[in-house]
Amino acid sequence: MFLRFAMFFHLSMEHEVCLHPKYFGANLNETIKMKLFAEVEGTCTGKFGFVIAVTTIDTIGHGLIQPGRGFVIYPVKYKAIVFRPFKGQVVDAVVNQVNKVGIFCDIGPLSCFISRHCIPPDMEFDPNSNPPCYKTEDETSIIKQDDEIRVSFPFCQDCPTHFCGNAAALSLTTGQRRRARLRRRPPYP
Fold first, then answer.
1. CB burial readout 76-109, b (16+ within 10 A) else e
2. Average pLDDT over the chain, rounded to whole?
3. DSSP 186
4. Which of 65, 66, 67, 76 is nearest to 32 (CA)?
5. How many CB atoms lie within 10 A of CB 43?
6. Whose CA is closest to 100, among 88, 115, 110?
7. Do the record's keywords include Nucleus (predicted)?
8. What local confidence, expressed as pLDDT, does residue 162 receive?
9. Among candidates 156, 157, 186, which has minimal Cα distance to 170?
10. pLDDT of the residue at 177
11. Can you tell me the distance from the alpha carbon of 106 to that of 113, in angstroms, rounded to the nearest whole number?
């Protein structure tokens, strides 16, 4: 199927917007839209992934008054672009930290850790270089901060508020856009 390795999706979603009575007036629908954007964009749900952007608002339902509070809850149906990685997926990442235990990198909004055990065995950590890096003995392959690397997800855990990604390094592109092929070491026996 075409979407097997996709990680960006355009989904129909629902959210309840809670408004204080001071916002009731001529611009009520506009206020609901602005509050929806503020509450939803940039958040993460375990079911759908990271909400990148709300594209359209389909319907704003009738409000329900909260007894004893005066607040009104409006059910909103909308479409959004979401980011969700899957197990076994290969993606490009940007290295943001290198240390002796491994590499931390960013894949869009996802932060990911690559253990030193998942880095090819011929690469060693060099704490004396500036900046610290992983490199081969002949220095043909180097992984340092701000490099682009290609990673795969041996597994990807999710919870209601965030994803925790562990990855294995497959290949890298250095700042000079030089491609080097790295041998993949299995993360688990």
1. bebebebbbbeeebebebebeebeeebbbbebee
2. 80
3. P
4. 76
5. 14
6. 115
7. yes
8. 46
9. 186
10. 32
11. 9
Q: 156 falls in which pLDDT band (50, 70, 90)?
A: low
- Beta carbons of 44 and 163 less than 8 angstroms apart: yes
Residues 48-91: tens digit of each pLDDT: 888 999 999 999 999 999 998 889 999 999 999 998 877 777 88
pLDDT at 13: 96
Distance CA 24, CA 28 (A): 6
What does pTM read for this prediction?
Answer: 0.65
Do strands 148-158 and 142-143 pair parallel, antiparallel, or not at all (unpaired)? unpaired
Contact, 104 vs 112, CB < 8 A? yes
Nearest to 121 by CA among 189, 186, 178: 186
8 A C-beta contact, residue 146 and residue 139? no
Residue with tokens 């097997």: 4
Diameter of the chain measured on Cα atoms: 72
Domains of the chain: 2-83 (3.30.1490.120), 90-181 (2.40.50.140)
Strand, helix or coil at 147? coil
Q: What is the average pLDDT across 93-118?
A: 87
**pLDDT more than 90, % of the chain:** 41
Where on the phi/psi map is residue 182: left (φ > 0), alpha (ψ -120 to 50), or beta? beta
